[in-house]
Structure formats: structure tokens, C-alpha cells
């Protein structure tokens, strides 16, 4: 019997999340032994040294990150939920899927990176995020994961439908089960005179009598129970609203825990007993980052710059790093292009957009990665990639939206479009979408707007000189 199951770990984490969660503190501001050292200094009368130490601690605290996740604070809640959702599917995250990136979530990211032989940074690069989403999606498809509306209770339930194909109506809800009953999922809906959440909680603790509790948690509007029921693992979650209680019980053989431990983690958070609850309600509508970074390609010495239309969507302010504010001249949704202009800029080095010639599938992308991906830097970097159908692989980092794509001869093949994944929380989020707008489309776009690109030189070095960082600020 294995007591340290993922189901029990989930329940324990729910307790700690509800009661004890707080943003992680910087380790430098709470080093072991600091209080003893300072007490000894005080006893020796070393007030000056103590004061200096306090000042140093103050500086450290002011500059310390507020979250363990490093860069998660600028990430939309839906994306954070999606990452936890996928990490739960891959078996790396045992906890409440709520988008709070504390130390537990960062540890799950590192565990995933270790298993997939990435560098253990605790922060997912775009290619790593894509790998995680693909692994999650594969498991969901294998188990035929679906969100099902239970007509008997009005709840929405996430189910591995390939594991529980049999559906029957029971007294207070619906039961889904495997062929021999190794796995059972049952919903219930109760509205009886005198019944309270607390009374049901006490009843469920004792019935059936062979339950051995490992975790029991009761709050004002919900409770959680988990443990062993005979030779099976069980998990119960129930919530109350307007005197009505809706809940779900998961029961499965230990022989199936290789599948069901991870699935139960997801099912618990996906369960939506009432309208406006569950992961979809928590994630809310998809939102864009308040400050988003991309790349632009200088096309004329007069200050015309091409970039990805997705990047400029909804911007209140557009700026070009080192040159100040930029004017959005026009956009073309079909082409995926936006034309910006900066005024008074000197020493611009336009890219060469006038060549003709044969091209192969090998490309070199030249762009400026998001500052969070390069420790606040703004270095121009290049990435070898290949055309893959309508997209490119491997995917570039965030910040490469609008980057230049060069062919094998170093000539501009086109411009990169990069759409970051938008996560709804109820299924594997789509992989980041990356493509290339061809140089022919770019030239037609410019010609229709009476912009004649300046002749430029081929090669990676010339392309690096011709790209700039574009910054979009949204309200």
C-alpha cells in the first residue's frame, strides 16, 4: 500500500494553499543564523555593524523578487493555470490548480525540465512550454479527456472517458465506471431538510465504514476527504451554494494509480459544481500582457519599420528601443504585418528586401528575445530553424515576433509571426503558433502603401544591424 499517493498530496496541498500560502521570500533576506549573529553583535555593543547589516538587508529586500517563479508575475493568470494543468497531466504537479506560482509550482517546472533533459531553470522557455503542452495533450488524447455536463446534478465534470465508458444513473447523480469497476466516478446532489455541509462532512468521514482517512478538510463552502477505502483509493470533493450541496467521489484500484493519480489531481480542480466555478471561471477571458516585447525590421532610412501585427494589437503606446515612440502607420490582418514609423532617427541600417532567388527549408531567425528570457538584456540573437508545413520548428523565443528570417544565402526570406498560446484551462492549450510572412508579401504590402524599401546587404551581421526591439504597452 502506497500512502504517499498523488491524491493525498493534492489534498494536503489544498490545505496548505488555503491556510498558509504566501509569495515566497528572497532567501538572502532570511539566511540561517542571521538572528543569532545579530544578537551576538548587539551583546558586544557593535551597533554600527548591526546598523550596516540592517541597511544591507533592506537593499536586498527591495531588490528581491516577490515570487518564486521569477517571471510568472507578468504572465496572465490563464497561462499560469494552463502550465499547472499540463504539469499535473505529466505527473509533475500535485496541487491545487489555481495559477499561484509558489515554490511548489516552480519545483514542478524544474522536475519537468529534468525529466525532459532541459536546463533546470524553473522558467519555461517557449520550446519547453511547447514540449510540455504536447506531452499533456498526448496523455489527454490517450485517455479521451472530456469536460462533461452532468444533467443529473448540473455540475461539469472532467473525465478520462476511455477509462470510464459505462454510464449509469444513481439515486442522487451519475456514475461513470470501467468495465470491471476498477475505476468509478460518481456525482451527487443533495438538498435535504436539516442537512448542512458540516453534517455531510461527518457522514462521509464514517461511511462506508471501511474508509481510512488521510486528509479531511472542511471550510465554509466546501470540504475534501481522501484516503483508502478498502483496497481502493478515494477522493471526495463537495461544495455548497444556497443550501444545495453538489459533489464528486473518485474511487480507483491501486493497480490503476499510474493513470489515476495524475488524472485525479486534474479532475479535482476541473470540477465545476455550480455555474461560475471551476478552472474556466477562474482563468477568466484570455488576456494579453500589459507590456509585450517583439522585434521590428527597419525597411527605410526614413524610419519605416515592419513588425508582427499580433504584437501591435491593442497597444496604447508603441515604442522602439533606443528611438522613442513609434507611430502605427497601418496594419494588415490578412498579411500579418504592421508598419511603424519613427521620426528623427539617424544611422538606420535597413534590411535587404529586394532580392530574388531559390530558397530551401533551412532558415536563420534574427531577433531580440523578450527581456525576461535574457535576464533583462536586449541582445540581438539568431536561431537556426526549418520550415515545417505552414510553421517553423524549433519555435523561437518570445520577443521574436517580427524577427527577420534569412535563407541559406543570408537573404531575407520573410518576417516571423509568433502568437503566444492562450490558455483556457480546460484542455491542453494550443502550441505556440509561429510562421513566416514571405518577402514577396512584404514587398507587396509596402508597395500598396507607397513605401520603397532601401537596398540592404545580405548576411546575419547585416540583419542584426537592421532589427530593433518593439515595445507594446496596453492599459
Task: For the structure shown, list the relevant keywords.
7-stranded antiparallel β-sheet; Thrombin, subunit H; 475 residues; Protein Transport Mog1p, Chain A; disordered N terminus; alpha+beta; 12 helices
Helical content class: 25-40%
Shape: elongated
Mean pLDDT: 81
As residue ranges, the low-confidence spans are 1-70, 421-431
- Report the β-strand fraction as a percent range: 25-35%
* Cα-atom radius of gyration: 27 Å
The CATH class of the largest domain:
Alpha Beta
Report on the structure:
With 475 residues, the chain is α+β, with helices and mostly antiparallel strands. The chain folds into two domains: 1-21 and 64-287, Protein Transport Mog1p, Chain A, CATH 3.40.1000; 291-473, Thrombin, subunit H (Beta Barrel). The protein is built from twelve helices and 22 strands. It has helices at 6-20, 34-43, 47-63, 77-89, 103-115, 126-142, 197-206, 257-270, 279-283, 309-312, 439-448, 460-466, and strands at residues 145-149, 156-160, 166-170, 173-177, 183-190, 211-218, 222-229, 232-241, 244-253, 291-298, 304-308, 317-320, 324-325, 327-332, 337-341, 362-368, 380-388, 391-393, 404-406, 412-419, 433-438, 467-473. The protein has a seven-stranded antiparallel beta sheet with strand order 3-4-5-9-8-7-6, with helices on both faces. A seven-stranded antiparallel beta sheet has the order 13-12-22-10-11-15-14. β19 (404-406) and β20 form a beta hairpin. α4 crosses α6 (126-142). The longest helix has 17 residues, at 47-63. The radius of gyration is 27 Å and the shape is elongated. The model is unreliable at 1-70 and 421-431 (pLDDT under 50).
